[in-house]
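Backbone-to-sequence.
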């Protein structure tokens, strides 16, 4: 096992794989080949132990009691918040709001920001490659307020048409939401440039970093964005935990998203006053064990090194792009100038669901469908794609196994 208190000198994928218990199992009698990390990542032993240890040794509610267990739980949870702050290079833990994941983080922002700043006739700008989680909350806001949702399009390669950005940023634009890395295409968007251009028009920016944070890392001070959301389960942490980060001056202006315990300073039937950040935006008991384990996941990734992870995944992407291009009848969907470790494709006239089913017989896990990005599928006139996505534990041999599996798919369908 990798000792997360030490920094390895080199990236050794076999050593890393030994940290993930699930990778040793077999599926349908074959070694597991897990190529679906954009959907959810597998968990290292250190993260599993952190969650288990919390429940075995520390479990108590936080912020509410004076006994030892509660103090330990509070220290562990708030310690995880500090780890998130460091990982993002944020200015303060007051800027780190724990949520259930990216989806809740964006819903929180759309609800609270919309209540404070969006009215009839205003506009919300997003892009054509957004996940449903960065579309539907803004649609709901527009339906409530009478605002208009506008969309920056994507081109045939899967890049944003940035030539249209300035025209879409108008005096009516209240916020811009942009994905850092597309889960359906793998496109890495030039977020820093987009933020600068939006700020030049006085428009705040939300970055969906669910797919970028585990692979490229995120420095909010460098990006300059105003809000950012990510999910723990995409970065080798637990499900049910995520973060909305926001600049303190913006978060201070947001009304509470939900009411209840821990987000109050005082309550009477006549008036309630609210707690300071970030508690004001965290009603109720959070996912305490999940928060602690998320902190461990960030430690794990940091110890291995984001630069090493990115280099390893770039090699996997290059190998996959080359090998998949050798498969007759296969077309890669999304050939942006800059990509992360995601390859979406279609194969002859075989439905992606059939591709996934046959690959499953070989122990190979990929995602098939619209990837919660139906507007992207519509842009390419496709009902669905098959998608292989890579994590730090994947190997070149697993990519080769995918290619061999796809040849079997063609055999089954008589291609």
């Amino acid at each position: 096992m990798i000792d997360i208190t030490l920094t390895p000198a080199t990236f050794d994928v076999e050593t890393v794989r030994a940290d993930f218990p699930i990778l040793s199992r077999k599926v349908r009698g074959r070694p597991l080949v897990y190529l679906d990390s954009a959907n959810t990542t597998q968990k290292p032993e250190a993260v599993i132990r952190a969650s288990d240890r919390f429940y075995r040794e520390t479990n108590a509610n936080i912020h509410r009691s004076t006994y030892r267990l509660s103090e330990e739980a509070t220290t562990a949870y708030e310690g995880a918040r500090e780890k998130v702050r460091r990982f993002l290079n944020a200015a303060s833990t007051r800027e780190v709001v724990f949520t259930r994941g990216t989806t809740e983080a964006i819903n929180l922002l759309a609800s609270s920001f919309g209540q404070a700043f969006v009215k009839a006739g205003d506009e919300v700008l997003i892009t054509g490659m957004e996940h449903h989680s960065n579309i539907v909350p803004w649609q709901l806001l527009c339906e409530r307020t009478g605002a208009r949702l506008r969309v920056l399009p994507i081109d045939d390669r899967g890049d944003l048409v940035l030539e249209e950005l300035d025209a879409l940023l108008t005096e009516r634009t209240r916020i811009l939401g942009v994905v850092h890395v597309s889960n359906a295409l793998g496109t890495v968007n030039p977020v820093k440039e987009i933020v600068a251009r939006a700020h030049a028009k006085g428009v705040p920016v939300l970055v969906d970093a669910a797919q970028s944070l585990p692979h490229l890392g995120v420095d909010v001070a460098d990006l300059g964005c105003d809000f950012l959301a990510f999910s723990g389960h995409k970065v080798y942490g637990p499900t049910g935990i995520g973060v909305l980060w926001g600049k303190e001056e913006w978060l201070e202006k947001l009304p509470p998203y939900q009411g209840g315990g821990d987000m109050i300073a005082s309550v009477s039937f006549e008036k309630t006053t609210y707690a300071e950040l970030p508690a004001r935006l965290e009603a109720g008991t959070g996912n305490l064990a999940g928060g602690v384990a998320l902190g461990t996941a960030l430690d794990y990734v940091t110890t291995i090194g984001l630069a090493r992870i990115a280099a390893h995944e770039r090699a996997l992407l290059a190998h996959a792009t080359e090998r998949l291009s050798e498969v007759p009848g296969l077309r890669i969907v999304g050939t942006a100038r800059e990509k992360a470790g995601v390859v979406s494709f279609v194969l002859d006239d075989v439905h992606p669901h059939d591709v996934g089913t046959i690959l499953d017989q070989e122990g190979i896990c990929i995602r098939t469908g619209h990837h919660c990005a139906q507007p992207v599928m519509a842009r390419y006139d496709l009902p669905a794609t098959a998608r292989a996505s890579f994590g730090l534990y994947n190997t070149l041999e697993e990519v080769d196994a995918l290619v061999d599996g796809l040849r079997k798919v063609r055999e089954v369908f008589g291609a």
